[in-house]
């Protein structure tokens, strides 16, 4: 059944040079980099705060900024600038030489720090504002239609950065995109009080998982039917500055696409149900623990939905063999980390050829995905081309997890310290396109790279 929506005139809320859709750290860094260079920038975010999965999703970790052997720094820019700002407020802890976690963040402090970055850069901001539709005139994207408490209006701009995570702008423009046949499942995180004692020796992968009188991983497997808990993988970290508040990421919502309205609704409710079930399990079988549910996210932690078809598709081989690109705008060393849909647990693939399948409650299955090499790569790169959507809209660039990468490559590049860099690159590219009256595809990538360096990024 269809209904006809009556045509109507709507006001123009704002006009800018660059419009960023999505206020994750990726989107914020895009907006700030463009604004610092001199562009007039507006950012639109559907939540009440910036930070995306880090803040609204409660995921309080950023991975290492060093290569796999911790000898060379490969990430800087606004990631390290933000870490330094959080250090001044005792709102970040560092885990040195860790393949699992580089920095643990107080993400409530991060919300405020991102506000400060936006305000300092003079970026026009719309929170609680939902992107509705693109505004196309003569086959050219001129603006976006949004809705908020003021009603429906338009944001007009010359260049657009799709940092929505799900590629909403590109999808509604009809840009070709795809959903992986086994996209990684979503996780509902929670902050839980009374969890262990901050400062205990932590498991390198799962963090401090020590509860009194109960091994949670084994108990979850043993009592999964009683509490209707799917097999998954649990990990977390304490909130910096607290003694016993722990961010726990231990739920799994399988086979639901967060870019679908009904699936997303189901996932949010099911994720919260699983959080309660985990706490009920601990209350029954680990009664010496005095747990309290401190907070739930305002948005489920979504790992993967749409991928936009771009000028280049990053492959697993590119990542695992550390291929270098002339147009590289981001570096990363986080292992390929695939959370499976078709079986419980996850698989880690390392750049030195090791592979580990982890299924909680079972011994780790260690093997190799390739034989040893004389010299292993220690980092990989993301090319600028993987941010350039195919199709007619050449004033649009993507930044974040909707970039063009195959399933294996995405397992490594998807983490926040990597995606942060794609935001910075998109912001710099938007300014250069504006200043040179070019589209994103026409830019000199050497100039993008050199401008990123001037702004503090590490370009290799």
UniProtKB/TrEMBL annotation:
<protein>
    <submittedName>
        <fullName>FAD-dependent oxidoreductase</fullName>
    </submittedName>
</protein>
<keyword id="KW-0004">4Fe-4S</keyword>
<keyword id="KW-0479">Metal-binding</keyword>
<keyword id="KW-0560">Oxidoreductase</keyword>
<dbReference type="InterPro" id="IPR039650">
    <property type="entry name" value="HdrA-like"/>
</dbReference>
<keyword id="KW-0408">Iron</keyword>
<dbReference type="InterPro" id="IPR036188">
    <property type="entry name" value="FAD/NAD-bd_sf"/>
</dbReference>
<keyword id="KW-0411">Iron-sulfur</keyword>
<dbReference type="Pfam" id="PF12831">
    <property type="entry name" value="FAD_oxidored"/>
</dbReference>
């Amino acid at each position: 059944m269809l209904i006809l929506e009556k045509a109507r005139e709507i006001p123009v809320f704002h006009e800018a040079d660059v419009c960023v859709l999505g206020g994750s750290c990726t989107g914020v860094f895009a907006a700030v980099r463009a604004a610092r260079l001199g562009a007039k920038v507006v950012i639109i975010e559907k939540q009440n705060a910036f930070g995306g999965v880090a803040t609204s999703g409660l995921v309080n970790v950023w991975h290492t900024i060093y290569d796999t052997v911790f000898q060379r720094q490969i990430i800087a820019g606004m990631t390290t600038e933000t870490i330094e700002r959080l250090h001044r407020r005792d709102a970040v802890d560092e885990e040195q030489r860790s393949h699992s976690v580089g920095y643990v963040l107080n993400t409530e402090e991060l919300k405020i720090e991102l506000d400060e970055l936006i305000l300092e850069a003079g970026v026009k901001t719309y929170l609680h504002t939902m992107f509705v539709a693109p505004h196309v005139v003569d086959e050219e994207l001129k603006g976006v239609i949004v809705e908020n408490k003021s009603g429906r209006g338009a944001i007009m701009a010359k260049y657009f950065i799709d940092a929505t995570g799900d590629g909403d702008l590109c999808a509604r423009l009809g840009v070709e995109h795809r959903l992986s046949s086994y996209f990684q499942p979503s996780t509902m995180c929670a902050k839980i009080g009374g969890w262990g004692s901050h400062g205990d020796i932590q498991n390198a992968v799962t963090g401090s998982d020590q509860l009194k009188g109960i091994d949670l991983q084994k108990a979850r497997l043993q009592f999964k039917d009683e509490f209707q808990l799917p097999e998954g993988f649990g990990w977390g970290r304490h909130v910096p500055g607290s003694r016993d508040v722990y961010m726990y990421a231990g739920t799994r919502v399988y086979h639901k696409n967060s870019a679908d309205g009904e699936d997303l609704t189901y996932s949010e409710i099911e994720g919260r149900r699983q959080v309660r079930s985990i706490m009920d399990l601990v209350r029954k079988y680990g009664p010496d623990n005095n747990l309290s549910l401190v907070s739930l996210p305002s948005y489920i932690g979504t790992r993967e939905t749409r991928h936009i078809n771009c000028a280049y598709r990053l492959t697993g081989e590119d990542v695992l063999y550390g291929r270098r690109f002339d147009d590289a705008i981001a570096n990363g060393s986080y292992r390929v980390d695939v959370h499976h849909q078709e079986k419980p647990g996850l698989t880690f693939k390392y750049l030195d050829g090791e592979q580990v399948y982890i299924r909680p409650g079972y011994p780790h299955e260690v093997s190799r995905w390739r034989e040893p090499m004389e010299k292993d790569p220690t980092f990989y790169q993301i090319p600028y081309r993987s941010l350039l959507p195919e199709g007619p809209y050449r004033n649009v660039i993507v930044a974040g997890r909707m970039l063009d990468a195959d399933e294996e490559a995405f397992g490594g590049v998807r983490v926040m310290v990597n995606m942060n860099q794609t935001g910075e690159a998109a912001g710099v590219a938007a300014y250069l396109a504006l200043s040179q009256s070019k589209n994103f595809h026409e830019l000199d990538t050497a100039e993008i790279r050199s401008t990123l360096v001037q702004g503090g990024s590490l370009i290799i």
